[in-house]
Write a structure and sequence with these properties.
The chain is α+β, with helices and mostly antiparallel strands. Helices cover 34% and strands 15% of the residues. The termini are far apart. The structure holds flavin mononucleotide (FMN).
Amino acid sequence: MEFEQVLKGRFSVRNYQDRPIEDEKLSKIIKAGLIAPTACNYQPQRIYVLKSEEALAKIRGITRCAFNAPVVFVLALNEEEEWHNPLQEGITSGQQDVAIAATQMMLEAWNLGLGSCWVCYFPNGEVDKAFGFPEHVKSVMLLPVGYAAEDAVPAKGHMEKRPAGELLKVL
Ligand SMILES: Cc1cc2nc3c(=O)[nH]c(=O)nc-3n(C[C@H](O)[C@H](O)[C@H](O)COP(=O)(O)O)c2cc1C
């Protein structure tokens, strides 16, 4: 798919077909997250793939925002591996690193004909505990992925963006 088509065509999918994702496509989405750029190339992102019945039941029991996706990725941060900015105390790269990996996965999914939804509305600590993450690994966001249901459409207002002048400052 044309890159611009991926960027402009993607929308958050919250209802999925009861259809598995082919292994090859799943691998490509995972790869997109693994090869993402990270500060100093420290690669603190962790990608958990929830696809067994047990894991999906667990995540759906924790948040309604797992929807009915056949696969839910948990993007997490290994806090022991994130870059610390030596020029500014308290500034670290981890959340950015994870967000870049997740963005690449979200766009690759769309490129392959699959929908997804970026999800932050879930109790992070509960997820970390439920899936037995090590102490220094913290979930950041969820990415349910799958084939969009036939009737899945962009939510109302999806393309309503603030005027560019409000967001963009050219100095
Ligand atoms: C940081 C972030 C957190 C989000 N959290 C949720 C969420 O918890 N649940 C949900 O249904 N959508 C969530 N979304 C999806 C947004 O609502 C959606 O991207 C936005 O309304 C624009 O619509 P679009 O993705 O269809 O273009 C989130 C998106 C971002 C970027």
